[in-house]
Amino acid sequence: MKQIFESKEDFIEGYKASIMSLSGKPFENTGDLDRFTALAKLIAGKARAIQTETETRVSSEKQKRVYYFSIEFLIGRLLDNYLLNLGVRDVVKEGLADLGADLDELCAYEPDPALGNGGLGRLAACFLDSMAHEGIAGYGNGMRYRYGLFKQEIVNGAQHETTDEWLSHGYPWEVRRPDRAVRIGFGGHVVGEERDGHMVYHTEGTQDVLAVPYDIPVVGYGGETVNKLRVWSAEPVEEQFDLDAFNRGDYAGADAHRAEAEAISAILYPNDAGEHGRLLRLKQEYLFVSAGIYSLLDTFENDFGAHWELLPRYVAIHTNDTHPAMCGPELMRILMDEKGLEWDEAWEIVTNTISYTNHTILPEALEKWPISTFSKLLPRVYQIIDEINRRYSAAFDRTADDWQNRLRATAILWDGEVRMANLSVICSHSVNGVAQIHTDILKAETLKDFYALTPEKFNNKTNGISHRRFLAEANPTYAKLISEAIGTGWLDDASELEKLSAFEGDPAFLERVGASKRANKERLARYVKQETGLVIDPNSIFDVQVKRFHAYKRQLLNIFKVMDIYNRRLADPNFRVAPTTFIFSGKAASSYTFAKETIRLINSVADVVNNDPRVNEVMKVCFIPNFRVSNAQLIYPAAEISEQISTAGMEASGTSNMKLMMNGAITLGTMDGANIEIVNLAGAENEKIFGLTAPEVDELRASGMHFAWDMYNSDRDRLGRVIDELTDNTFARLSGDFESIHNELLNGNDHDFVMKDFRSYVDAWEELTTSYSDRADWNRRALHNTASSGWFSSDRTIRSYRDEIWHA
Ligand code: NBG
Questions:
Q1: Closest Cα partner for 618 from 572, 555, 682, 650?
Q2: Catalytic annotation on 548?
Q3: Which of 233, 217, 241, 131 is nearest to 180 (CA)?
Q4: Cα–Cα distance between 707 and 756 in angstroms, integer?
Q5: Which of 659, 756, 780, 784 is catalytic?
Q6: Using one digit for the tens of pLDDT, what is the confidence trace for 334-382?
Q7: How crowded is residue 9: how many other Cβ atoms within 10 Å of its Cβ?
Q8: 599-624 pLDDT, tens per residue?
Q9: 558 in ligand 1 pocket by Cβ < 6 Å?
Q10: Rounded to whole angstroms, how far apart are CA atoms 712 and 541?
Q11: Catalytic residue status for 93
């Protein structure tokens, strides 16, 4: 481990100097924000020094560089994480204490950049952590949105979105690199001319903006490798401030030019499923793709000169879902139009450099753009896509049966649209899903025609999570216990967590496992009290569902369970319920009515239940507003039940399931996504599985024999009652009833099988919570889950990307 501070005294000296240079004041006269900023800047400086060493090593050893292109990076707060990764957390904590400051308090001043929606963006951040840990020269390439996703507030039970001004106090980790800015052209028209016997193309009359990079260091555990995340901001190419307009009092008009350019990197579209034909989104996608490719080609040229044929050997470009799908045609464009390569040479390079991960089978999330919009905005890129598509069609094997349908399914251009998933597959040498069942579904359904044509491209890479962030950092009490038992090697190699199974029969140890959980529950209860005013009881079971709101994730099923238990308890005070706090958190896309109504329903049920003294002994409902990485780190460690209840076949992988398992929660879930791998690793007896399986879902859908009204009529007492309560004012006190959910469910014929799985789910919950009374065994199962979770470290995932896709 590299030592960035020789001693506590060395740290204190450096820190005081940092404070002085930042604020011009001695430490005693500064406030917490200055203290945080100075500390983060000090650590960032140290990190950048290691980054320079890493860079020298990578260049001199000709290490392959991996570029991870993603429109989202949910990196969370960095200070605590980097102190841990650099091995100086204790020294810094003690040094600060000597000065009269508290590390945890300072850490809370760090903004939590919401540069992502959910799992896809957090996965990208975990991958950066693991690439640095594994010593891979791995770089993130993304967008620097001026405002994060949005800040969620709950008003009368409903979600309200406000801007998240995460940059308002500055961001100490980033360095702006105007010297590396890239000019990006939109619109215009393509001009071709003959030069030395072949055609060369360029685009004239474009409207240009400047992509300006900001670099954020990525510190690997052990401190040997520091990589970087480069995020791009859109700016005007030159100031065109209109002084006349300004003098007329038209201040907005005076700066309109800047505003228009900056709009491109203003916000992240708050949709992780469902893209609209929005021009700005397409501009974002092109901007970070084009700028990222120019910048990686620059680096390559510095190391290897114009030997572009070597690109696939020394560079891997990984595209995270379809948002960076233009990597293929953009790299073609630059290699041909600017570096002078022929089509065939360029194509060979492109397809051997690029790889693609699919993250969902939801049809609305497989991006498509109208050709008319696309070709106007990016005429030369479109032309290249058209040519890729033409060559693909021309080379298509027309001897196989059904070739027409296969060609139709796999073509890039069809029905007036550019299909980004098909573009991604065709430009890539590798296509992977993110859990075994998901990859199987890609092969058998979503991308089945591609699989039939090029089965060798397809592979599975089950997701992973940074166990350092989500166990070591998020759960210090448990981490300490673990390290006492098995040493600290697990931080480096998560498979060592297996050694914990030796303690499953040790009653004293299990009691300490329970005590640590209890401490985490108290910590969360304090947070909930402070954020919402609600008092929750750490003696009750903490039953947790935290993730984006989406119909297929079935938060509705969960709240139906709560309503049912409430009804039954009111009807019969002797009905036994293990005291439980039902905890929900997550955002809904601002345009997604059903998801937002589900949030309102949860808060409305909470309002009734939490104010009803007849049930308060045994139940409370808690919605934690504004779910983000920082409060997630308080929630996972406190959870005892992990709700993973998506309609089977719909959740590609899930990653909160892994984070919760690692923190000792028991999964209550369907056989979906990575839940299946969880059950395989920990044993079905240590989780609680219920509901339809994916093949059963398919079969029932195909049979046409599922009828929502029949379900309703055949279970009037319980399910029927819950459904009636959506519209009979039972939960209407805060802001009205829930007709739209009622209609969606019944007229939509229970599309997500909420009604179908209802009984099996509530039964499973009752069995699981009943078993809570045998606390020793519960703690044993918790420990067993942690012991079985090491495989879910993103270090493991990254090693298999490295060995099987990137060959880095
Ligand atoms: C999400 C899936 C999750 C998966 C993450 C990370 C998108 C488009 N997909 O199941 O819904 O865990 O990606 O792979 O956000």
A1: 572
A2: yes
A3: 233
A4: 9
A5: 659
A6: 999 999 999 999 999 999 999 999 999 998 778 999 999 999 999 999 9
A7: 12
A8: 999 999 999 999 999 999 999 999 99
A9: no
A10: 30
A11: no
